[in-house]
Design brief:
By secondary structure, this protein is α+β, with helices and mostly antiparallel strands. 36% of the residues lie in helices and 27% in strands. Helix 3 runs parallel beside helix 4.
Length: 137
């Protein structure tokens, strides 16, 4: 039975049920992506409103999806939600180094993934002090 359903799906060309299955530039997909972006922008604005103690330049960075010194890890995670965050090390003196990037697959199975780091971020006492960019997305 399982093979029959698979065969019928292949013959009919059944794809996933997402709006972007019709094409990245299809009107349905573009509308879906615009709604997602609007939701992300609203989420960033809500975070800024909920944290009135933030400096104006940090608020601007969060809303515009940018990085600036003085941001906390939580500020950056709100500003850049589509990255994977990995702690590289912590010291007793309050220094932390984080790598952010994406998990990539080599296409050979579940055990053939690697972490493609894009940025190395240095924090002291929970505040961003410096970062290094490894490459483009």
């Amino acid at each position: 039975m399982r093979y029959l359903i698979l065969l019928v799906s292949v013959l009919l060309g059944v794809q996933g049920c997402g709006p972007c299955d019709l094409g990245w530039y299809s009107p349905e997909c573009m509308e879906y992506r615009a709604k997602q972006e609007a939701g992300e922008l609203q989420r960033r604005k809500d975070y800024v409103v909920a944290h009135p103690e933030l400096a104006e330049r940090i608020k601007d960075c969060i809303i515009n999806e940018q990085m600036c010194t003085g941001m906390t890890i939580d500020d950056l995670k709100v500003s850049w939600p589509n990255y994977t965050w990995k702690t590289v090390y912590r010291t007793a003196r309050g220094h932390e180094n984080w790598h952010i990037g994406h998990y990539r697959s080599l296409g050979y199975g579940t055990y053939s993934t690697y972490f493609d780091a894009r940025y190395s971020l240095d924090f002291i006492d929970g505040k961003l002090v410096d970062w290094l960019e490894f490459g483009e997305d």
